[in-house]
Amino acid sequence: MTERTDWDDLRDRRLSEPGAAEAHDAARLAFELGRAVRQMRESRGWSQSELARAADMTRSAVARFEGGGTVPTLPVLERLARALDAVTSTEVVYESIFA
Predict the structure, then answer these.
(1) For 25-61, how does the pLDDT look when each residue is reduced to its tens digit (9 = 90+)?
(2) Other CB atoms within 10 A of residue 33 CB
(3) Please, where are the H alpha helices in 16-92?
(4) Whole-angstrom Cα distance, residue 87 to residue 10?
(5) Please, how many CA atoms are within 13 Å of residue 72, restricted to the half-sphere of its CB?
(6) Whose CA is closest to 89, among 74, 70, 69?
(7) How many CB atoms lie within 10 A of CB 82?
(8) pTM reported for the whole predicted model
(9) 3-state secondary structure 44-57
């Protein structure tokens, strides 16, 4: 019989593969950005269609972004922020600050 692998072992093994950690980080970023925009949109009482119209996007693009399916370019993120009366903030800092 083969040995069973638990989720933590499988995750660690997969994340050690080339490029996997970067892909995982990109997915996390996409999810967090999408969640933030969705919360802002919902706090305004807007539908995805209303946000799409205000940001000059399609509803499907807004849905895909809110679901974490894509990381937007900075210009798209700025359009979304403007439509929601928000601002974008981008930083590049030494990682050791957060260690």
Answers:
(1) 888 889 999 999 999 999 999 999 999 999 999 999 9
(2) 19
(3) 20-43, 48-55, 59-66, 74-83
(4) 39
(5) 24
(6) 74
(7) 14
(8) 0.75
(9) CCCCHHHHHHHHCC
